[in-house]
Amino acid sequence: MRLVVVGGGISGLAAAHRAVEVARERSVPLELTLVEARERLGGTIATERADGFLVESGPDSFLSEKPWALALCRRLGLEDRLVRTDDRFRKTYVWFRGRLHALPDGFQLLAPTRFAPFVGSSLFSWSGKARMALDLVLPRGVADDESLGAFVRRRLGREALERVAQPLVAGIYTADPDDLSLAATMPRFLEAERRGRSVILALWRASRQAPQPGTSGARWSLFVTLRNGMEELTAELAARLPAGAVVLKQRASGVERHGTGWRVATFEGGRFDADAVILATEAHATARTLRYVDPALATLLGDIPYASAATVSLGWRREDVPHALDGFGFVVPRIEGRALLAATFSSVKYPGRAPEGRVLVRAFLGGALNAAVLEEEDAALAARARAELAAAIGVTAEPLLTRVSRWPASMPQYRVGHLARVETLERRLEALPGLALAGAAYRGVGIADCVRSGEAAAERLLAGSG
Ligand SMILES: Cc1cc2nc3c(=O)[nH]c(=O)nc-3n(C[C@H](O)[C@H](O)[C@H](O)COP(=O)(O)OP(=O)(O)OC[C@H]3O[C@@H](n4cnc5c(N)ncnc54)[C@H](O)[C@@H]3O)c2cc1C
To answer: Is 253 near ligand 1, meaning CB less than 6 Å away?
Structure first.
């Protein structure tokens, strides 16, 4: 089988690697080509070592709760390279009214599950706490899908939304919670309400039943990474592909039918004929590639909005940072009017991110709610990150290291109705046998979801062969 994968981010790499695995299992001859527009593989995954610091420009970890990335690491022999978070510091702060407040222990994204830390928290007013408690008696909602903002406001009130849900969600999706689909992003909360009515009670029950990742019994923390950074994963995947399979610096311009199969053309003049094609690019890029094959499909894809973001990594001497850095970082509610979405204390969260006596902090800026900040030059962005961190953690010293990374139109936004759109997309694809889509745009933006989507695409296309 001749298979072309377009896009060499984690989704495309996972697809290509799974195709190699399945072809080997079934003794199917596979002629594989992976076409990537940039000069490097990995997409948004990019790790750099500089002056003893290990800087993640994009994702710094993946979720262990969703099994696909962890399972892939095991198959790649990377299990002993995995590192867990340092759970002594498993605390997140919220920057509210000019100071950092610890998120109460047991707070699960939207709602509290432990009484005492919640009641004692300085993050919420008494009326805000009472409003959250109303969730215990409120009736169920009726919508199939609604915005995350509407859901939290309805069940837990405005404070829960503005002070916790919005900034935590912005740190993941960089999105406006009033646009974000609850069903597509956090179905467990929708499910919790459907099954148990009260979100707080449902989360509390679940937290009593299952051992929490990151607690003493669990093997892995909620987030894990690799000793030498996330690029270890993409490098290992690339190393498992057949020699000559990867074609860099060629941007797919279009896909067209060719005989009984497909032809992928590139702007650089490349022509790749295939029995099957996996398009693992951002939805806006996939839309352009498919515009002549199925214009309606291309429109559906092109209508998935994307946000841009930037990370600014800053290294300091430990003694230059007054804050205790006794957490994984902090998030910033929109109502604070800051450019910063969140900051990670990278060298506290994971070992080996900074040399002895140094610390690495990463600022996250931009997103759907603050796109204008990305029009600034790198130096201005770095200065802005430094000013925000000076206000939050008191660091004013000249950094030893500064790295700015931009991710334009890289973060898909799952708007209300997203899942219905994806289902329509999938139905239209059925009329295009031999063609599959993979990537962060469809059923999950995290690395684990991307691995699943790439692997599922490869399995589907190879299902009939052998
Ligand atoms: C700053 C940031 C931090 C993040 N943090 C985390 C995190 O900590 N944990 C987590 O799980 N997730 C995180 N995410 C999300 C996650 O990293 C991404 O959703 C995931 O890496 C997307 O992978 P992908 O392969 O689908 O897409 P991409 O990584 O975007 O890859 C798409 C690839 O397709 C290529 N391409 C595009 N058009 C063409 C074309 N026409 N022809 C050929 N190639 C083309 C691109 O060059 C790119 O390499 C983060 C994302 C960002 C931006």
So the answer is: no
For the chain, 466 residues long, the average pLDDT of each consecutive 10-residue run is 98 98 96 98 98 97 94 97 89 94 87 87 93 92 88 94 92 89 91 89 82 56 93 98 98 96 98 98 98 96 96 98 96 92 96 97 90 91 97 97 96 95 96 97 97 98 82
pTM: 0.95
- Taking phi first (over 0 means left), then psi (-120 to 50 degrees means alpha), and beta for anything else, what does residue 238 get? alpha
Please, are residues 153 and 324 in contact by the beta-carbon 8 Å criterion? no
**For residue 32, how far is its CA from the centre of ligand 1 (angstroms)?**
21
CA-proximal residue: ligand 1, atom 5 (nearest) = 59
Report the residue among 44, 45, 72, 370 best suited for mutation to probe ligand 1: largest number of ligand atoms under 8 A from its CB: 44
CA distances from 336 to 252, 332, 333, 340, 391 (A): 42, 7, 6, 10, 12
Whether residue 278 has its Cβ less than 6 Å from ligand 1: no
How far is it, in rounded angstroms, from Cα 343 to Cα 361?
7
Atom of ligand 1 nearest to the CA of 285: 38
Residue among 203, 231, 107 at smallest CA distance from 163 = 107
Q: How far is the CA of 317 from the centre of ligand 1 (A)?
A: 32
Cβ atoms 51, 429 nearer than 8 A: no
Q: Whose CA is nearest to atom 13 of ligand 1?
A: 59
What is residue 163's DSSP assignment?
A: I
